[in-house]
Write a structure and sequence with these properties.
alpha+beta; 14 helices; 51% helix; 391 residues; 4-stranded antiparallel β-sheet
Length: 391
């Protein structure tokens, strides 16, 4: 067992950490308080990140990118989320969807979008699945004609007509390319009746709807995707007809693991701030870290962080090892890390006492942020359901 990072990983880790310290942290708290979601979206920060090459890390070498593996992306994602989780999630969505696009798209589709994605520092990606009546049904999936994705696409020659609405879509509102799941056979469940299409904001009949306001992870955007007789050319179909679910399972092993890395970064930031506070806060004639009530909480934070990080790195490493990746490892890593991170952030707030509950302190933001991943990227209950059949 060798936990040593490669020189490339060490370089990217330092690059991401320095960027988070110098560019993300100085603005994150003020942006988090901005009531307008579009005004708080950190365009300037993300453009700087893109110019450093952080937006396109997952682009494979044969498409002109560095081709970073899942472990490297997790290392970078943790550092960026140490600065701000919402900012890290925006970039992580780009990485995850780059994986999906690279595996599913044909050569013509890649050639059509590759140059713009590489050169446009505001080119972000989204994947559209969740709807008002279907979230977990798509992930388990509950394979019934009356469940799952209801946004439809009906073929008419070389064009598909799409109608329906997605919601809570990460990078919605700003993405320049979306991979969207449509129900193409309503007589069958999502396993046999769903297809992926490439959608761009300039398509007639497509628009972004409401930008959702959120408790945490506020520097990322989630929005509605609305289709009203949207005309999607056949050349934009990016999976086999009625085979989207199978395609996602086959080509997307690192999604939940990468998500876990971002929540762990926020938990680490909470732990470090609590540790610093406990060393300087004097009560009972000594720093509160010397009182067992506080020291025990911080020791537990340390243990859960280190255990989560080891599990995360191992799970990420397995995605690149032929025949070694186990789907339940990805699902349960997301569960374990997100729940550990929630406990770390909760304890860290308690270390600050009443001050931690005040909005002037950094702790309440950490807690709001980490709470999102008890549900985001698939609820933890659904992750457990998916793991059961692999036990």
């Amino acid at each position: 067992m060798d936990f040593t990072l490669t020189p490339e990983q060490e370089h990217l880790q330092k690059t991401a950490h320095d960027f988070a310290a110098q560019e993300i942290r100085p603005v994150a708290a003020a942006l988090d308080r901005e009531p307008d979601p579009m005004k708080r979206f950190p365009w300037e920060v993300l453009e700087k990140a893109s110019k450093l090459g952080l937006r396109t890390l997952a682009l494979p070498e044969d498409m002109g990118g560095p081709g970073c593996d899942t472990l490297t992306l997790c290392i970078v994602g943790e550092e960026l989320a140490w600065g701000d989780m919402g900012t890290a999630v925006t970039l992580d969505q780009d990485w995850k969807i780059t994986h999906l696009f690279e595996k599913l798209a044909n050569e013509e589709q890649k050639a059509r979008f590759q140059k713009s994605f590489q050169e446009d520092h505001q080119f972000h990606l989204a994947v559209g699945m969740t709807e008002e009546t279907s979230g977990s049904d798509n992930i388990i999936p509950y394979n019934s004609p009356d469940a799952g994705v209801r946004t439809t696409a009906v073929r008419e020659g070389d064009v598909w007509t799409a109608n329906g609405k997605k919601r809570y879509i990460s990078n919605g509102g700003i993405a320049k390319l979306c991979i969207v799941a449509m129900r193409t056979d309503p007589a069958k469940g999502v396993e046999e009746g769903m297809t992926y299409f490439l959608i761009t904001p300039d398509m007639e009949g497509f628009r972004y709807g409401k930008i959702h306001d959120k408790m945490g992870q506020r520097l990322s955007l989630n929005a509605e995707l609305i289709f009203e007789n949207c005309r999607v050319p056949e050349e934009n179909r990016v999976s086999e007809v009625n085979r989207a679910t199978q395609a996602r399972r086959m080509f997307f092993p690192g999604s939940n693991i990468e998500a876990a890395a971002t929540v762990l970064g926020a938990a680490r930031a909470a732990y470090e701030d609590a540790l610093s506070h406990a060393r300087s806060r004097i009560q009972g004639g000594r720093p509160i870290i010397e009182h067992q009530a506080i020291g025990f909480m911080l020791a537990d934070c340390f243990a859960e962080y280190e255990a989560s990080r080891r599990l995360l790195h191992y799970a990420a490493w397995t995605t690149g090892q032929k025949g070694l990746y186990d789907p339940k490892m990805g699902f349960m890593t997301k569960c374990f890390v997100s729940e550990s991170s929630y406990r770390i952030a909760t304890r860290a707030l308690e270390v600050w006492g009443g001050t931690g509950y005040m909005t002037d302190a950094p702790m309440e933001k950490y807690l709001r942020d980490v709470t999102s991943f008890l549900h985001s990227d698939g609820t933890n209950q659904v992750m457990r359901i998916r793991s059961m059949k692999f036990l």
